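Lecture 7 notes: from sequence to structure.

We start with a single chain of 143 residues. Read the sequence below before looking at the structure.
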Amino acid sequence: MQDNGAFHGAKVAILKGDRLVSILRDDDPDIPFRNMWDLPGGGRAGEEGPEACVLRETQEELSLTLTVADLTWKRQYVSGADPNQMTWFFVAEMPELDINRLRLGDEGQAWRMWDVARFLRMSNVVPMMQDRLSEYLAEREAA
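Now the structure, written as tokens:
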């Protein structure tokens, strides 16, 4: 299932130790998972690849410039919003992340650093983000 061609969008879990960057989605009735905590990322623009998509979205949403080298784990999944589409999920472990430089762009209501364990238990998080992050953490723990 590792097809870089057809995909809908990409998300990234940005980890600083045991903390995670999250964005509160807009409260617009026309978007899926409105008013829920999500991870940075979004829809594909044009013919960009998965890495370019998630790097652009992270810059737009948080004013955070990541590089491809920062993306240390990736996996393709069926989209939670549309089962006929594929999405990508990345992880960036950023122990030196300066959270004072993060600035919310023009999407989302707020950003916040959450304790990873708390984020995984919260009921107002986009569910597949919890599942995907849990999968990564289990693989990291097993390695």
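The longest strand covers residues 9-16. Keep this in mind for problem set 3.
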